Amino acid sequence: MTYRFIAFCEEIENFVMEIKAPPSATFLELHKLIQKNCNYSEQGNHQFLICDDNWRVKEKVHLTDSGSSALDEDLYLMESTFLEDFIEEEGQRIAYIYDITTKKSLLIEHIENIFGEKVEQAFVSRQKGFAPLQSSEEFTFISDKSIITAIEGNTAEQAIEELNDEDIIGSDD
């Protein structure tokens, strides 16, 4: 089985990236793929925020242990946390904090389990538009706990609809 994700940014309407990954891929592999594909540099403790259907944060997956976690909080690190540990169903939502200083994020939605297709590693299968800049002040998220107020109602389907369907999704999809 292969996971199919759509990554998008609410503020950059013409940017959509499709990622395919095996369930056994780590969040570190996904992080490195995004960093490389978007030409981002390492600027701190990047995070994946595992969100509910309303983009409220349920769990955090950190790049490194900064030592600031509460004693009663589980600490998930990208290198030892697999996608299948948190990806439970289609529609699962994740925010990727790519600029920790300004809390700028890519929104990622798991849109499909592709049965019968097996990939060895995560890769960008399609992309349209330019990735948002890492260090500019295009937009700033409020806080991890209030992502919903910044992106309420936004879905991968809405991001894709704003684009030319042939550019990101083949006619067979």
Q: Count up the helices.
A: 5
Shape, principal axes of CA atoms: globular
Order of helices and strands: EEHEEEHEEEHHH
- In percent, how helical is the residue content? 10-25%
Poorly predicted segments: 136-153, 168-173
Strand adjacency order, main sheet: 5-4-3-6-7-1-2-8
Give an account of the 3D structure.
With 173 residues, this protein is of the alpha+beta class. Helix content is 18%, strand content 32%. The protein has five helices and eight strands. The chain has helices spanning 27-38, 83-86, 147-151, 156-161, 165-168; strands spanning 2-9, 12-21, 47-51, 57-62, 76-77, 93-99, 104-114, 123-128. An eight-stranded mixed sheet has the order 5-4-3-6-7-1-2-8. The longest helix has 12 residues, at 27-38. 31% of the residues are buried.
SSE layout and pairing:
Elements: E1 2-9, E2 12-21, H1 27-38, E3 47-51, E4 57-62, E5 76-77, H2 83-86, E6 93-99, E7 104-114, E8 123-128, H3 147-151, H4 156-161, H5 165-168
